[in-house]
Design goal:
The structure holds two protein chains of two kinds. Helices cover about 40% and strands about 15% of the residues of chain A. Chain A is of the alpha/beta class. A six-stranded mixed β-sheet of chain A has the order 7-12-13-11-9-10, with helices on both faces. A five-stranded mixed β-sheet of chain A has the order 1-3-2-6-8. A two-stranded antiparallel ribbon of chain A has the order 4-5. Chain A is globular. Chain B has a domain of about 40 residues: Orthogonal Bundle (Histone, subunit A), CATH 1.10.20. Chain B is built from three helices and two strands, in the order H-H-H-E-E. In chain B, strand 1 and strand 2 form a beta hairpin. In chain B, helix 1 crosses helix 2. Chain B is flat, with a radius of gyration of 23 Å. The chains are: A alpha/beta, B mainly alpha.
């Protein structure tokens, strides 16, 4: 079986035509996952037993001549931020290193109902805070294209899992770029959806006004398939609106004649790596050759996005992580201390890594009396201005295309001691989280050092179908 | 900008135990970060509304029905502390005189 060239649809076809059984398919991916995990540290947990059990169920259905669903029996990786019933779900943290949740996240439940075979739980920066997975309690994930480089983050494990052929699709989360950036670094498509498009129930909350969930896959077409299964309203997540979910597979067969593409000049400025810039410009030319119009636009508020983000995100994170008191769940500290208060200090002091401590403290500082207005309220006002700027631009153009990250993957350790430098890697991805916009990373080149380059296609809220269509056309040219 | 004492104070408010080494490192790093975010001061936001919800949803309600995803025993299992009569035993909150 040539797992490298399988897609969701070709694997499904292979199962139907009995070219391989689901157990054979699962074994092939589990073997590959075991091997690559030693080299790249992609998975926190590989769930071989559960995977094989599910594969047997699928094989039995096929043997009985029952219909199987498109995702049934298809191997998948799930970010370890997501609750999986009865399976360790660590959020990349020592705090949750023993946490076995008693229920499934809504997205996991939906995929289980569709018969997914979960290969394992993928590595991430602790509580999804970071851009390299170097903040994982379980060590960094390495880039499949060159193990000296990071896979990106925070969903680095999910991106590397697909890029190294250890599963056919995976789920990640994107709060400031955590799907798009690792997708760009690892050279796979990855979709950040509109805020509220996919339920976050049962997924560890990071920054609640920014968090989104989305898929990685080997092709944009496969992303469209996965979207059909996971998008939509959920009563357990009140931020999911009643907006119709289209059939994304039908959305991706439209021509793009007359499509108006904006190139925001601030995303192509001097801070952008030359090879990255060139690759994205060439990709846009390719789309132009298919009948799209390209114009340069300006988004001057972009330069404030990181500052807004590093107020709003830590503020919300500090509130969300206040629930980790090691009483109902969490790490039992080595020293319980004399009082309940000692217990809090010790469990949080031991359980949280450095980056989490930094962000909790920034959050509590910007929310504290006397600073709340100057920082948090100010940031929420600038946020409005960033949103208004996007709204105006989308009156003129249909989509924006820009580099996903200012540069290709960086080396492990390169930015670890300078958090501000690490934060600036998110400069081009954060604005979409601030405005709740969808954006799709599509691989569009390889640097001279052999590292992937990605472009992001950005659209108005709930325009995922349009973005997938453009990405699919580009991929097939 | 942040002294090590400031950092220790914020850490106390955050219920985080820090080592001296961490306090030293964080005083420099957090100062850099706060200095960076202060660039927002240059943006004129007079009369601009704050945004905290980006898709415009307001007051999402549902009927108050009891729905269980798991039972109490399963939830108690998640606790690292001793259990007694279906409750979690914690250290006393109020000190004896």
């Amino acid at each position: 079986m040539d797992i490298k060239n399988l897609s969701i649809e070709s694997a499904h076809k292979g199962l139907l035509e009995k070219r391989f059984s689901c157990i054979e398919l699962t074994d092939a991916f589990l073997n590959k996952a075991g091997k690559e995990n030693e080299r790249l540290n992609i998975y926190v947990t590989i769930t071989g037993e559960e995977a094989k059990e599910q594969a047997k169920i699928v094989d039995n259905k096929i043997a009985r001549g029952e219909r199987i669903d498109l995702l049934e029996g298809i191997p998948c990786g799930i970010k370890d931020l997501m609750n999986t019933k009865g399976v360790l779900s660590t959020s990349g943290s020592k705090m949750l290193s023993n946490f076995v949740p008693p229920y499934d996240a809504t997205v996991v439940k939906k995929l289980k109902n569709s018969g997914m075979v979960m290969i394992g739980k993928t590595n991430l920066d602790e509580f999804a805070c970071g851009g390299s997975t170097e903040h994982s309690y379980f060590g960094p994930t390495r880039n499949p294209h060159n193990p000296d480089y990071t896979a990106g983050g925070s969903s680095g494990g999910s991106a590397a899992a697909v890029a190294s052929d250890t599963c056919l699709y995976s789920l990640g989360t994107d709060t400031g770029g955590s799907i798009r950036q690792p997708a760009s670094f690892c050279g796979v498509p990855g979709l950040k959806v509109t805020y509220g498009r996919i339920s976050r129930s049962g997924v560890t909350a990071m920054a609640s006004s920014l968090d989104t969930i989305g898929p990685f896959a080997k092709s944009v077409r496969d992303i469209a398939i996965v979207m059909n299964y996971i998008a939509g309203k959920d009563v357990n997540d009140s931020t999911t609106p009643n907006v119709v979910v289209p059939n994304y597979l039908q959305e991706i067969n439209q021509n793009i004649k007359g499509l108006k593409i904006g190139m925001p000049k601030e995303y192509f400025n001097n801070g952008i790596d030359k090879e990255v810039k060139k690759s994205v410009e060439v990709a846009i030319k390719v789309l132009e050759s298919q009948g799209a119009f390209v114009e340069q636009v300006s988004l001057p508020m972009t330069k404030y996005a990181i500052a807004v983000y590093y107020i709003v995100m830590p503020a919300e994170l500090s509130a969300n992580l206040a629930r980790y008191d090691s009483i109902r769940f969490g790490l039992k500290p080595e020293d319980n201390g004399e009082s309940l208060e000692d217990y809090y200090f010790n469990s949080r002091g031991e359980g949280f890594g450095e980056e989490i401590k930094r962000r909790i403290m920034i959050g509590n500082y910007v929310l504290s009396a006397g600073y709340y207005g100057a920082y948090y309220k100010k940031a929420q006002r600038v946020r409005t201005k960033i949103i208004e700027e996007f709204n105006e631009i989308f009156q003129k153009v249909d989509v924006l295309i820009a580099p996903t990250v200012p540069g290709p993957a960086f080396k492990l350790g390169e930015k670890l001691d300078d958090p501000l430098q690490m934060y600036l890697v998110d400069a081009l991805t954060v604005p979409m989280n601030i405005a709740g916009l969808p954006a799709l990373n599509v691989p569009c080149g390889i640097t001279s050092k052999g590292l992937p380059v990605g472009m992001q296609i950005i659209g108005p809220q709930f325009s995922e179908g349009k973005l997938l269509n453009i990405g699919n056309i580009y991929e097939n040219l | 900008m942040f002294s090590q004492d400031d950092i220790k104070h914020i850490a106390k408010l955050s219920r985080l135990k820090l080592s001296d080494n961490e306090a030293k490192k964080f005083s420099r790093q957090l100062s850099d970060i706060i200095k960076y975010i202060e660039q927002l001061k240059e943006v004129n936001t007079d009369g601009v509304e704050e945004t905290s919800q980006v898709t415009g949803l307001k007051n999402v309600t549902q009927s108050d029905d009891i729905k269980r995803r798991c039972d109490g025993e399963e939830l108690l299992e998640c606790s690292p502390l001793p259990k007694e009569r279906q409750q979690i035993r914690v250290k006393s909150v109020i000190k004896k005189d």
